[in-house]
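Hi V.,

You were right to ask for the full record rather than a summary. Here it is.
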Amino acid sequence: MSDADNGRRDDRACGGLADRMAAGAAVAVTAADAAKATDHTTGTPLGDFLAAAEGCTPSQGIGVVKRASKLAHHPGVRDAALAGDVSPNHATAIGEELEKLPQDQMSSEQVDRAAGLFLDRAATTPPGQLKRATQKILEEVAPEAAPSPGDEAARIAAQRSRAVKDRHVIWGSDGEGSTWFRGQLPDLEAQQLIGTLQAFGEKGRRAERDEAEALRARRAEGAITDSQYLSARLELESREARSTAQRMADALIDMVGLLGSLDKVPSAGGQTPRLVVTLNYQDLHDALEGTIAAGVVHGATGEIPVDAGSLRRMCCEAGILPVVLGGESQVLDEGKDRRLVTGAIRRVLEVRDKHCIHPGCTVPANLCQAHHIRPWWDGGPTSLENLVLVCRHHHALVEPDRYHSRDQWRIVVDPDTKIPRMLPPERLKKHLRKSSGDPDVARTDDPTSRENSAHTLEPSAGENGENSAQPALVA
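Predicted structure:
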């Protein structure tokens, strides 16, 4: 290409070519389906043939055929897609809307005019919003076929009834450590869910803005040093970089967590999380220490492998239900569910910490998780002196490994005020500016300061003193 051609080139040229090729493929699929080509040659319907040939599921293969038929539904729309005048997604959406029109009450000229009006709107309207124009286009091209107000009310009622009937949510494991969800809800209920998710997402954005402002203010007041500010700001930027889809996923997780923390989960669903101990106690203890693989959690999608770190975080506020098994694994006795962090301790924690204790984090206490400074599996008691509130994100940063050898964020307790705080890892400090008056740099470099950290915190009796005597057994 010449320099002049290169200067005029942009991604739209490649995108337009790809769209035209996709439209051509859809037209070919529709032609093959109409001719029943694969039925005659292989004895297999085209949807199933595509599934076998492309390595997809039968439902995906059938979906390809259905979408192709909508794109090629009207000759004018089909030709516009082949010419690159509209995208395949627009052509498919227009085909769907044309199918909804009462074509048996319309002339071919009226249908062609409706297709033309849809094509005109496609230039400025996203595919998913074209359906909003269907009623107006019908009233314009065939007013005699447009439903009366009474008919429209009946149509809306019937649409609502179908939507309620078709509601569903399904899920399954992808085999790679994730669970997928798929489903649909009636519009009214869906808007409630979407609005709630967006509210949680916006709350997260506001919290990030407030956290950034609080960090700047605390640095200006001298409450935190430059190194503390920069380390907290770097960590905050990782959360600010989340995509909208990631924020909505986190919002759904926060919604479920809030229900659990408020004891709003019905008894049929149980408390979240709940671990049913059906293994040798020593095996559980060893798994939490990391000396053996943590094992699996039995969930709705089957057995889910869980690493030791995740299991330790789950156990911070989990309920443990001891189960005694016989030689053939039959249940001989089932103990009483015991929660590590009682309601009384939780309330005091919320009053003391008010929010996540990570520097500048403003996630409120009711959305935080209780964290054992010295893990209960390491002999740490479930007492106020050994607990702090951290948000879900920061919980993963402070959970210690078995040998306390990883350079990570850690919690220290002021020996005078008994107020806990988080200190950054040494490897992060190497990238930050340090001032000679930085108390945290001096303190964390001083070996004696580590006596107050999670690594050497001594057990102490708390509100539930029996936990101090046998923390692991009760937990």
